[in-house]
Design goal:
The protein is an alpha/beta fold. The protein is built from nine helices and five strands, in the order ααβαβαβαααααββ. The protein is globular, with a radius of gyration of 18 Å. The termini are far apart. The protein binds zinc ion.
Length: 189
């Protein structure tokens, strides 16, 4: 297994010096222009696939890149969204799905999730995605991005920014074997 401690030491030794000025600036500045909501899948690395520098992406990763719709109750995803949009004033928000997504595969193929009740419960946030899908994994991955964009728009901070014209929502699908990003048609929120 990749040694995480050794990786951290290598970062400090070999990578950090070339970006020392950037990190000195970032020590007291946090002004990312974009919110990136992606899957927790280890193969989908937001900064890598968008070639973003530290400080440029505010990232939320969840299983299946699911965004629960707004409720009156606090949760971590909602807090991250509100902080990015209302406090950091990001001007762009991306929901990024991907090929071979384990969460979407479980739904598309109706896997038995009785041994993983937390996963099963979480994936209910994709009920609308399943309802929109014409069947098959590719369709579900795309419709899930659209459904989660719609969920994102139910958050008051996002609704406010959309009404003010200060935020643009984008739907992406990342293809692991080719590295390509497909941009889905803009969705009416
Ligand atoms: Zn995934």
């Amino acid at each position: 297994m990749h040694d995480l401690i050794e990786g951290a030491a290598r970062f400090r030794r070999d990578v950090f010096p070339a970006k020392a000025e950037l990190f000195a600036d970032l020590a007291h500045t946090h002004r990312p222009p974009a919110l990136f909501i992606g899957c927790s899948d280890a193969r989908v690395v937001p900064e890598l696939i968008t070639q973003s520098e530290p400080g440029e992406l505010f990232v939320i990763r969840t299983a299946g890149n699911l965004v629960p719709a707004h409720t009156p109750f606090p949760d971590g995803v909602a807090a991250g969204i509100e902080y990015a949009v209302s406090v950091l004033s990001v001007t762009e928000a991306v929901v990024c799905g991907h090929s071979a997504c384990g969460a979407m595969t479980a739904l598309a193929e109706r896997h038995d999730l009785s041994a993983a009740p937390a996963v099963a419960g979480w994936l209910r946030h994709a009920d609308a995605s399943l309802a929109r899908s014409s069947g098959g994994l590719d369709s579900l991955v795309r419709e899930n991005v659209r459904a989660q964009l719609a969920n994102l728009a139910t958050h008051p901070s996002v609704a406010r920014a959309l009404a003010a014209g200060t935020l643009t929502l984008r739907g992406w699908v990342y293809d692991i074997p080719t590295g390509a990003v497909e941009q889905l048609d803009p969705v009416a929120a």
